[in-house]
Amino acid sequence: MKKLIVLFIVFILNGLCVFAHDSGAEFLPRQIGVVESVEYEDIDANTDYPQVRQRAIVKLLNTESKGGEIGVVNMITGNPQYDINLKKGMKIIIHSEDSDGGIVNSVEDVQRSGVLVFLSLIFCALLIYVGKKKGLYSLVSIILTCVLIFYALTPMILHGIHPVLATVIVCLVSTALTMYLVGGFNKKSTSATIGCTLSIIFAGLLSYLTVKLAYLTGFAGENVMFLYTAHPELNFIGILISAMILATLGAVMDVAMSIASTINEIYSVDNTKTVKELFKSGMNVGRDIIGTMANTLILVYIGGSLPLLLLANNIDLYKFINLNQVVTEIASALIGSCAIVICVPLTAIVASNLVRLTHEEPFE
Predict the structure, then answer these.
(1) Closest to 199 in 3D by CA, of 153, 259, 245
(2) Across the chain, where does the E strand assignment appear?
(3) What pLDDT, on the 0 to 100 scale, is given for residue 220?
(4) What is the DSSP string of 124-158?
(5) Is CB count within 10 Å lower at the N or C end of the chain?
(6) How much is the pTM?
(7) What is the pLDDT of residue 270?
(8) How far is the C-alpha of 95 from the C-alpha of 107, rounded, in Å?
């Protein structure tokens, strides 16, 4: 049975990743360099903000001409969202393109990937040190989930598959991979997988209903507008629903495994307990989990929307609450919280019944 499950998961994963190949994708040329020196030049542009041109000498780091130096022109316009103030020693991404006057080198962005690598190493070290074997399995499941999102979900949507269908498939595969890797091939993991799956389906239905009733457009941020410019053919309402579903996945998996593990331990200590007693015990533990997990999810959305909250001081509160972007954020947080709450009884029902199906050791 275990081999069949493994083969099924691998088959699904391989099938999904077929969509990852996009032969039509083209990337603009870019180079990495470190700023050696910077000179400033004021520009009279007749604007409200003073504009400055930076002329920098950059030492190349990752091209055939590694160690060579090029000149880069960078404009500071007074817009903090787009301005990059070059400083000596800063690593930057350079974009080069041909123009009538020759090749022009401009600053694409600051190279920040080094910080991400540093944080990732700290996270991996802590996860493995504290979690031991389970931590290692958790790390593997995280990597597989990221692979599914970047190399399966994204290409599936871009190739025309309905975003909600693609998201549900990826969530189901991710759930099975995570549960069986972390919990092992047993009834505990099966119960958690079923409970999580049912909760995700519930979140999907609730998201669809919310989007329809609130007349949400799917255009709730600048990134969506950039995507629309590149791919206007996509289903943006479907993408919004998919984002709501995907945002609930991690928290729901946590709750489902916690409830299934609790019922497993209770039955291990006393295997005379009835299904009703096991369900009641699971619900008692679940009520404690609900408060903290729902609070965590709400705070995540509030933290990500703090600029919007600050903006509320300058806008009529009633108008603010009805803004498309505000309703989208609040709805996402509430839908995720609803999925967490419904996950507790669903998983408790499945786990308490599944453990009593046989007279074998619990969830082995």
Answers:
(1) 245
(2) 30-43, 51-60, 69-76, 91-99, 102-110
(3) 78
(4) HHHHHHHHHHHHHHHHHHHHHHHHHIIIIIHHHHH
(5) N
(6) 0.79
(7) 84
(8) 6
